[in-house]
Structure formats: structure tokens, C-alpha cells
Amino acid sequence: MADKATILFFDSGVGGFSVYREVLDLLPQHHYLYAFDNEMFPFSEKTEDLIIQRTVAVCKKINETYPLDLIVIACNTASTVVLPALRETFDIPIVGTVPAIKPAAQISETKHIGLLATKGTVKRPYVDKLIEQYASGCQVEKLGSTKLVEIAQDKIQGDSVDLIALRDELAVWKNIEDLDTVILGCTHFPLIKDEIRICLPQVQHFIDPGLAIAKRVAFLLENVKLRSKNEVENLIFCTKQFEIQNKFMQALKHRWGFERLIVLNLDE
């Protein structure tokens, strides 16, 4: 495809950058937008109805000014509940993010695997169905953590990683010697994968869906009729002002090429 597609990534925080990074590596030619609902961060503590309402509202608001060709819900928690509503609202491809349970079950030698996700994700019936379908022959540990999301959020905003807090969150798995595979079931977690690896040295494989999502986006774009071919600036949207905006944007402009940060007013 010679023309640029306008692709929106959505998360409650910055975890979706781990997915964006993989898509950008595979498809550097397109026009990228990133939206995070920092007013409602973290989603894992919110009701399903509120998550659906906010996700649809943010995507519709951006689409009014920047016609979208594809949306990536770069959040496992949101993806477990919002995809049907988005597909009713938009007639463009919607790509969700789900825990990579199938590849983890396939690669594990001990068949003892861990799902590290948010509190919202680990309790969803959808996840239980994935485990039943793809990992019925495995022992699956589930650990839901909001603290790890906050640690990853702080890291990408320039703060150092609190390894003591990280170890405390993961302590329940420290002595499970045959736990050889861990699914990073929140898009924030690949951003602190190296630090998680230090805390769980017995784990041989850390699995996240980033590359699979990138390949899915590439496949879907082959049959998309583009709505807008003129956008050139990669933009970031948030839902409320925050203290370190300038520092945040300097880091993201240098690292991933985003030009401006726009604060959305969903009430307009």
C-alpha cells in the first residue's frame, strides 16, 4: 500500500506503546495517533460500562478531526469488553489485544505457565475461556497487579524502576521453580520486561502479543480503502492535563516521533 493509513492506538495509559513499537517497526510508513485516557487511568479498577463508554467516546472524538482507517485497542483490560461496541460504531477494522495464552502453552516445556495481567483482565470470563481452549493441558497461575502498571507508567515517563516494589508484587511466583513461561497480559508489562526477568530468573520465556498484532494490522490494511491520505503529523491525545507533559513529550518525540500532545475535551 503506497498511501498512508491513519492508525489510532488506545489505552488508559502508556502501555500501548509496547504494541505501537512493534507495529511501527513492521509498518513505518503510516500515520500514527496514540490516545491515553489518563483521566480514568488505570482501567483495571473501573467498571466494564465505564470502560466501554470512555473508549468509544475518545475514539469518536478523534475520528471527527482525523478520519481513522484502523483502531488498535492496545489494552488487554479494555479489549475484553469494548470490541463489540466499537465494531458497532465504526466500519473500519478494530484490532484488540488479548493475552498470548496459546503461544505460551505451545512453547512451555514444563506446562506450568503464569498469566501476569491487571486485576480486571485476570477475572474476565473471556480469559478463562482462552485458558480452557488453548492451555487445558497446563497449570496456569494468574496474578493481577495494578502496581506493576504504575511502575511501567512511571518508567516511560522518565522515573527509575522500583525493583523492591516489583519484587514484592512478584514474590508469590519466586519459588515456583518449574514456572518456565510467563504471559505479559498487560501492554504495560513489556516495557518492564527486563526488570521482571530479574525478579523471576527461573522463567525462560516471556510472551507478549505485540508482533502478532503488528502482523494482523499489516494483513487488515491490505484490504482497507483509506479515508484520509494527507495527514503527516504523528500525534498523542490525552484526556486531562498532567504535571510532566513537556518532559513526557520530549521523550516521546525523540524516541518515537510524536510531534504534539493534544488534550481532548469529551464534553464538547
TrEMBL record:
It comes from the Bacteria. InterPro entries: Asp/Glu/hydantoin_racemase, Asp/Glu_race, Asp/Glu_racemase_AS_1, Asp/Glu_racemase_AS_2, Glu_race. It catalyses: L-glutamate = D-glutamate. Keywords: Cell shape, Cell wall biogenesis/degradation, Isomerase, Peptidoglycan synthesis. It is an enzyme of class 5 (isomerase). Substrate binds at D11, S12, F43, S44, N76, T77, T187, H188. Its EC number is 5.1.1.3. Pathway: Cell wall biogenesis; peptidoglycan biosynthesis. NCBIfam families: glut_race. Provides the (R)-glutamate required for cell wall biosynthesis. HAMAP family: Glu_racemase. Belongs to the aspartate/glutamate racemases family. This is Glutamate racemase. It comes from Actinobacillus porcinus. The gene is murI.
